[in-house]
Amino acid sequence: MSHDVVIVGAGPVGLMLACELRLAGTPVVVLESGSEPGAQAPGVALNAGAVELLEMRGLMDACRAEGFEFPMAHFAHIWLDPTALADRYPFNFAIPHSRVVHHLAARARSLGADLRLGQRVVEVTQDEQSVRARIETPSGEQTVRSRYLVGCDGVGSLVRQAAGIGFPGDEQPFHGTVADLAVGPDSPLGELVGAREYPAGLVAVTPMGPGRVRLLTGEFGVEPPRRDGAPDMAEIQDSVRRIAGVAFTGGALAWSARWFHVTRLAERYRAGRIFVAGDAAHTHFPLGGQALSTGLDDAVNLGWKLAADLDGRAPEGLLDSYHTERHPAGARACQTTRAQVALLHPLTELRDVVAELVRFPDVNEYLGMMVGGTDTRYPVEPAGDAHPLAGRRLPGIAAAARAVPGLAEAWAAGHAVLLDLTGDDTLGEAVNGSADRVTLLRSAPLPHVDAAAVLLRPDGRVAWALPAGGDTAGLRAALTAFAGTPA
What we know:
By secondary structure, the protein is α+β, with helices and mostly antiparallel strands. Helices cover about 30% and strands about 25% of the residues.
């Protein structure tokens, strides 16, 4: 039996991609080697970019019941003020990434994705017509065939290697541990809540509920004592004592893992009928939820493009634009996290100077959008004539969804939208023949959107914008460029 799309890996990126494909009506199979998706995802931060994407797809409500919003952000643990940003962006949100994966899995299943657990992919091959994945299952070996296959299978991606995609980069001397601990009210770890830097490394303690914390340590300039096996309580206690000079005893270890300082970027995000996304495409030092937001952006970029191709309505080059748009974003995430690590270790006077600079509004704005994953702009043509909003995500997504009737529903369904703020019906004719691909919505002008109309792709990116007093030249071309020739 042949499938349209097979996704390898049921982490947040693979599941988000599955949801995107199902919103477009595309059948999808997700193969996951583990018995439960994302059970040990170590992260706890959703930055502004990730919150925006989850808001668009109607997934944040489920997350809000299990986490909390915090109006803070940091660049190399130098605190920024996101409340002072000129544009309206959501604040960071704290929730275990394992719970985000849980909600994504529930949504993917509810949309009809075929999620198969305990399915370990051992070989991937492709030809001009299809991709074949050989898998080990509890009932024996099987082969799954598909028109496209996407590797969301992490840093050591078998899919990426099978596709012959290089993964250049480097690893720096570093060793980190992450653990969930049950602790008493008098635990010395209470004094370390937050993120703290020391000459030898860093320690971060995040409350995860009554009597439970997530403890993260990282030591710079050391070789990992081992790469396999989870650290035990004694090793974690020794790490905290060496870095922070704090001794703690007692408590119970619920889960632990090791992490390393590796920065790598796939040479290409597509090889024939095989794509890579998330950590299989880019990996870097984990800071501020940038890995998750970058990976989720990969998923929402690729999903609607694959669906359009399989439906026979993708314009030429649409699938290749996944690499064109997302590879620079992955490179940017690698670059900016490297810069932050340079300020985290060693602790120098340069860090103090940067801490002074962030008090300037423009610096706070620049770095705040960078670490929030909201500064990405996709290339647009013609570049010199493009509206400032073109290639960006619509500012003030939450405010727009509240103000424009039907917008939240269109976004949750993964629709493209022509948002007409002109107050008349002049744009209706432009989408004739594309009504099945683009939802036309009308509204009074939005104070946070400096345009009279915007054409939004299914991923929320602005494909075209109408300046106040401008003309609609270019709208049909922009529409055709991502939605195909109107019927």
